[in-house]
């Protein structure tokens, strides 16, 4: 009994001493992920050249994948910053085969009758080749995607079996071409095409019954005011007052004790300071500093989804020109 009381009392002390993080004002960030090659960060127009009639299905599917900021010239590639050249082909893996099967059955009156089933089947490889070209028509990348599919249809006569088979073949061909073109596009966009990211984030303050967080809370509230000015480009991070704000966070972090949850500046509070610094640099679109501080925040302690989103996004693009 006494042991259980001791455990409960200890938990109460930990809870009462714990520091809780508090969101201040939320800000919406939209940042463009730069492509691998800087020359294409300013690409605005996209063109398509279909080398086969079936490639139009692929073109229409890929257009839906493009960011709406692009001006799409779907009739051709002339005069565009980037262009896709699409070709499609179908290869027979297992040749068409027709089987006829007869079954003897009896109707309700006991009269025998014959049921004939004609089955037609074949297996195909449906391939899509997507070439990415620059504004001069020079080939940048080639991606090829292939999907296999067995097509099988049955009917009471050979004529119907052929009809159903042909209809299903066309449906499956379109379906495979469309899905392969999306896979090809996805393989290219990560290298060349700009992409928009949206995130809502808030500087963090803290509260506790045991500790005083006036320094952190004053800094967080001051940061809210400065962030809006930085986002609107009405001020610079080199402003002496903003530099003082950064120094406050550095001073709090210097007090951090990573071995005690009861410490005023424990891992959670330290992670909040690094998190706030990351958002400050995100406000001026300094991605390197943003990633540096958000990595430090996440490595200390996982405190919210913003850490994961920014770290994952920026780690993917940190080696790209223009980052």
Mind explaining what this structure looks like?
With 323 residues, the protein is α/β, with parallel strands linked by helices. It folds into 2 domains: 138 residues, no CATH class; 156 residues, Double Stranded RNA Binding Domain (2-Layer Sandwich). It contains 8 helices and 9 strands. The strands form 3 sheets. The chain has a 5-stranded mixed β-sheet. A hairpin with a 5-residue loop joins β5 and β6. α2 crosses α3, α4 runs antiparallel to α5 and α7 packs across α8. The longest helix has 35 residues. The chain starts with a helix and ends in a 6-residue tail after the last helix.
CATH T-level topology of the largest domain: Double Stranded RNA Binding Domain
Strand content: 25-35%
CATH superfamily of the largest domain: Lipoprotein like domain
Strand order of the largest sheet: 4-3-5-6-7
The dominant shape is elongated
CATH architecture of the largest domain: 2-Layer Sandwich
Task: Say how many strands there are.
Answer: 9
Roughly what percent helix? 40-55%
């Amino acid at each position: 009994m006494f042991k259980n009381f001791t455990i409960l009392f200890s938990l109460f002390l930990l809870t009462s001493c714990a520091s809780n993080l508090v969101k201040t004002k939320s800000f919406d960030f939209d940042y463009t992920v730069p492509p691998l090659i800087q020359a294409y960060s300013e690409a605005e127009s996209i063109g398509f050249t279909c080398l086969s009639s079936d490639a139009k299905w692929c073109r229409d599917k890929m257009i839906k994948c493009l960011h709406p900021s692009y001006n799409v010239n779907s009739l051709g590639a002339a005069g565009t910053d980037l262009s896709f050249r699409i070709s499609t082909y179908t290869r027979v893996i297992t040749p068409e085969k027709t089987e006829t099967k007869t079954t003897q059955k009896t109707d309700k009156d006991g009269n025998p009758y014959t049921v004939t089933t004609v089955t037609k089947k074949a297996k195909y490889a449906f391939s899509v080749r997507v070439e990415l070209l620059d504004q001069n028509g020079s080939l940048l990348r080639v991606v090829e995607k292939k999907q296999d599919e067995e097509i099988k249809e049955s009917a009471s006569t050979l004529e119907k079996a052929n009809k159903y088979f042909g209809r299903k073949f066309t449906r499956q061909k379109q379906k495979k071409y469309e899905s392969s073109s999306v896979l090809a596009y996805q393989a290219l966009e990560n290298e060349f095409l700009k992409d928009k990211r949206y995130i809502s984030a808030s500087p963090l303050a803290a509260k506790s019954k045991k500790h005083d967080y006036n320094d952190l809370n004053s800094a967080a509230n001051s940061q809210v005011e400065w962030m809006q000015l930085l986002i609107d480009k009405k001020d610079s991070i080199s402003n002496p007052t903003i530099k003082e704000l950064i120094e406050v966070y550095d001073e709090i972090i210097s007090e951090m004790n990573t071995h005690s949850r009861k410490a005023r500046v424990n891992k959670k509070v330290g992670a909040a300071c690094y998190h706030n610094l990351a958002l400050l640099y995100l406000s001026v679109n300094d991605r390197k500093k943003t990633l540096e501080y958000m990595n430090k925040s996440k490595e200390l302690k996982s405190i919210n989804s913003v850490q994961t989103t920014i770290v994952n996004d920026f780690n993917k693009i940190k080696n790209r020109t223009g980052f």
